[in-house]
Amino acid sequence: MCSGLLRYDPGAIRLARGVDLMLTVIAAAMLAEWLGQFETSVPAIPMAVLAGFAGAFAILFTPVSTRSQEAAGILRMGLIITCVYAIGALAGTLSGSSGPLVLEVLWIGAIAFGFALDGLGGFWQRAGRVIALSWLFVFIFNQPHSHGLWFPVMGAMGTAIAICIRIFLWRPSPERTYMRIEKAFRQAMAEQLERIILSGSVEASANGKSAAQLSSLRAELQLSADLIGQGAAFKRLPPESVVMLQLALEVVRDAASQLTTAGRTWLLHNSGFRETALRLRDDIAHEQKSVPAPLDEDWMQDVGMLSRDDQFQVVRIAQAFRRLSLLLSKYAAPAARSAGAPDEVAAGFWHRLSWRLALQAAVAASVGYGVAAFFDLNHAYWVTLTVIIVLNNSLGATIRKSVQRTLGTAGGVLIALAIDPLLSVYPDIMLTLAVLSIPAIILFFDRNYAIAAGFIGFMVVIGLQTVLHLPVIEFWARIYDTVIGAAVGLGVSWLLFPRRTGQSTHDLATAYLSSCAHFLTRRDGTEGEERAAYASLNETASTLVSTARSYRSEQAPWSCFLSSSNGLDVMVVVLADYIVLYREARTTVLAEAGEGPLDPAIVSPQTLSNVARMDKRVLAEFNAVLEGREKQTDPALAEAWMAAMPETATPGSRIMADWVAMLYYARKVVQCLDSLRQDGMWNKAVTLTGRPDAAA
Q1: Residue 665: which residues within 8 A CB-CB, separation 6 or more?
Q2: What was the pLDDT predicted at 567?
Q3: Positive or negative CA dihedral for 598, 599, 603, 606?
Q4: Last-in-domain residue among 452, 472, 497
Q5: What is the DSSP letter of 595?
Q6: Does residue 341 form part of some domain?
Q7: Are 234 and 335 in contact (CB under 8 A)?
Q8: Count of the separate structural domains present in the chain
Q9: Chain mean pLDDT for the chain
Q10: Does some domain include residue 349?
């Protein structure tokens, strides 16, 4: 269980943010309740809720970043919440006895306006959701009469508390967090290497959850590097080297799994190999204070007694060992990703607003509130709140959020109702459980929203039952309110100008595959240009995977429950990494082949032509996928490529190892492309034409 939680937050970045949010809510509520002693005309509970949620929203909708960036983000978000509170208080005061109706209509307008900002992206996308959610408290606590200036005062107070707690209190050091996560990554890699190499079973080579664990740790390393920024004063394994370490381990896993029983037995009984593998394992697990000494490769002297296929796999293992050792010596300052272009709100403002989503939100909120009022539900605003949460800028994302919100809320409410009879006589314990749910919500909010929704439902039921002493029977409504709201939001998103992501997925997939093919053929540039091109590929891959998830939900809504697509998503991401590795191996082979006269015992005269044929083979596969054709084959290529490794060449020679590496990475590129072709939904998205009927 602990290892599963560490996978969600190995550096405690999210946990610290959740604790800060919890402390903000507690401090704001306590201070507001204390102020309530001097202002008897305003109940203490509304003041506490207004201040607490203002601070909570300011932190929740400000992404994890540096202190200065978060301070500016929380301040801007708090100003927006305070302005919403002020406008709501003014509207409630001026509307007099018709206040509830006016506030309902204005809430629909606030929701539409907030969702229109979605098209501006970045900060304004988050601010739009905050505007829609904040008006909920304006609507609730302005009845039966307005509380006037206390609304914006509570908003400003909650914002100030959020800044003080989030910015000025202790927070995890990005540098130490990076070192902790890197240590965990090293330890996981060392354990996997030991299982792969020193186990006699083929099953031990299966990747399974191990590869997912390394990928999660790798993502956390990049997040820590982003928090450190460009001015890192210490040197560690940079995120780029960590990626290559994982892929080098994948080479070892793949080669070990393809060894015959005889080859595996020979390897396991080779004392030199065992010593080399154990030393490499220790080098991976423990930080080296100096550059590791070259690995001993004398254990390969007797490889000639193996079959040619086993020789091929052993050479791959030796080359991967060499690459792992080399990568472990490449310490550098972890570099942050490019922040990207700033939000250009002023340029084309009206054209960038998401009018379609604003219309969907207004209609869905109106229908949801109307349905709740028609059936005389006790808390009709809960239905509208669910609409705000599940409605997204694409149909697929709305489907996924609706499923996660419904199942998570139902689970959390049922658990709360089950423990309520047991703890109802211990209100302090129940209130403590509600408060402790806040860090858990933040921990899972970005990684698994279904679990986060469960904690939200649990917190709402336990908290309201303890503070307001409402009958337990009323909280059953929380489930069907959520179901109604999710159904309304999903129905409107499906029927009213639905935005399907088929064409977007096609455009992104085409652009990504074309960029990968272009990267393969581009001339070598400076190190900075290479890193920039590689970073651009990774950014495009991440956007493609996110859009493809929405597309998959549209094509098969039941995929929201499954994780079977994760392997294909990983293949999309690592395709760029394999392209980089293929280029590196190709460059090394050509450089070694060009050093002096060709030696037939090492490099055959057909080397250059075979390299050109391999390039052509890989590019042909890219073109075939983009054009929707079947997998391309070149039967003579594999034989010619294997024949280029001469029988008399030294198995441990560098040219042979790089030759084998180039072949392996080319095969991995082709396998990634073929896997995408074989997946029905990916293939359908990639092969869409630009015709409107195809996009539909």
Answers
A1: 578, 581, 582, 585
A2: 55
A3: positive
A4: 497
A5: S
A6: no
A7: no
A8: 4
A9: 80
A10: no
Distance, in Å, from the CA atom of 10 to the CA atom of 26, rounded to the nearest integer, reads: 26
Tell me, yes or no, whether 161 and 112 share the same domain.
Answer: yes
- Long-range contacts: 43-51, Cβ < 8 Å, 24+? 45/467, 45/468, 46/140, 46/141, 46/147, 47/147, 47/150, 47/154, 49/137, 49/141, 50/85, 50/137, 50/141, 50/150, 50/151, 50/154, 50/155, 50/158, 51/154, 51/155, 51/157, 51/158, 51/161
Q: Do 202 and 255 reside in the same domain of the chain?
A: yes
3 state SS of 582:
helix
The answer, yes or no, to whether residue 341 has pLDDT greater than 50, is no
CA end-to-end span of the chain, whole Å? 43
Burial class (CB in 10 A: 0-12, 13-18, 19+), 535: middle
**Which residue type occupies 23?**
L
- Which range is most confident: 109-113, 280-284, 674-678? 109-113
Amino acid at 115: F
Residues 520 and 619 sit within 8 Å (Cβ to Cβ):
yes
Q: Which long-range contacts (CB under 8 A, 24 or more apart) does 30-39 make?
A: 31/157, 31/161, 32/154, 32/157, 39/150
Measure Cα distances from 614 to 481, 488, 572, 641 in Å. Answer: 59, 54, 21, 9
Residues 6+ apart with CB under 8 A from 125: 117, 118
Cα 526–Cα 528–Cα 531 angle in degrees, nearest 5: 110
Structure tokens at 196: 């792969």
**Model pLDDT for residues 537-584, shown as the tens digit of each residue:** 888 888 888 888 888 778 776 665 555 455 556 677 788 888 888 888
Nearest of 253, 326, 252, 234 to residue 283 by alpha carbon: 326
Residue 3 belongs to a domain: no
pLDDT at 376 over 70: yes
Asked if residue 340 is part of any domain, the answer here is no
Whether 671 and 527 map to the same domain: the answer is yes
State the pTM of this model. Answer: 0.82
Count of beta carbons in the 10 Å neighbourhood of residue 350 = 8
Residue 95 C-beta-side C-alpha neighbours within 13 Å? 22
Domain that holds residue 623: 502-695
